[in-house]
Design a protein that fits this description.
The mean pLDDT is 88. The protein is globular. The chain is built from five helices and six strands, in the order H-E-E-H-E-E-H-E-H-E-H. The longest helix has 15 residues. By secondary structure, it is of the alpha/beta class. 39% of the residues lie in helices and 14% in strands. The protein has a two-stranded parallel sheet. It has a two-stranded parallel sheet with strand order 2-4. Strands 3-6 form a two-stranded parallel sheet.
C-alpha cells in the first residue's frame, strides 16, 4: 500500500476509522491533523505477535503464507506518541501517513527474530490460495486460524 492509494478498508474497524476521518474533515472551521499509522506495538501491546513470539520461544515452526513475501508494517508506540506531539503545532489541516520506506517481508522479519533469539524455530510457507480459502472457511465457522497450529 502506498500513501497515494485511496483508503479501502475491508473490516468494520477500518471502516469506522475512515468514517471518523470524514466526520472530522466536515468541520472546516477547525484545524485537524489526522495520523494514519500501521499496527502499534510496545511492551504489553503485542496482540497476535505474542503468539508468534511464544512459538519462537518454544522452538515451534512459524508459518508464512505464499512464501512470506507480503510486507506488514508496525510502529513503536513511543514513535507514534512523538509524531502526535509534533502534530500539535502543525498550522493547517492535514493527513499524515506514518511509516517506513524500508519495510521487510514477514519472512525476513520472522527469520530475523528467530536468528536473534537463538531459537530452534524454522520459518515455513503454506500455499497462498489454499491457505486463504481455509482461513475464510475457519472465519465463517467462527474458528480462529491461529488455533489451527502445529508443532515442528
Amino acid at each position: 500500500m502506498r500513501e497515494e492509494d485511496p483508503p479501502n478498508p475491508v473490516e468494520i474497524y477500518g471502516r469506522s476509522k475512515l468514517r471518523a476521518e470524514e466526520i472530522i474533515q466536515e468541520y472546516s472551521g477547525i484545524v485537524s491533523v489526522i495520523i494514519r499509522c500501521p499496527t502499534i506495538i510496545d511492551f504489553g501491546r503485542l496482540g497476535l505477535l505474542s503468539i508468534l513470539f511464544e512459538f519462537i520461544d518454544e522452538g515451534r515452526r512459524v508459518w508464512t503464507v505464499g512464501g512470506g513475501r507480503n510486507k506488514y508494517q508496525f510502529i513503536y508506540a513511543k514513535d507514534l506518541a512523538h509524531a502526535c506531539l509534533e502534530a500539535l503545532d502543525y498550522p493547517e489541516s492535514e493527513i499524515f501517513h506514518i511509516g517506513s520506506d524500508n519495510v521487510k517481508s514477514l519472512a525476513e522479519v520472522y527469520e530475523y527474530v528467530v536468528k536473534h533469539s537463538h531459537s530452534k524455530s524454522c520459518v515455513s510457507s503454506l500455499p497462498r490460495s489454499a491457505t486463504i480459502a481455509a482461513m475464510k472457511l475457519a472465519y465463517r465457522f467462527g474458528m480462529s486460524p491461529s488455533a489451527l497450529t502445529t508443532t515442528k
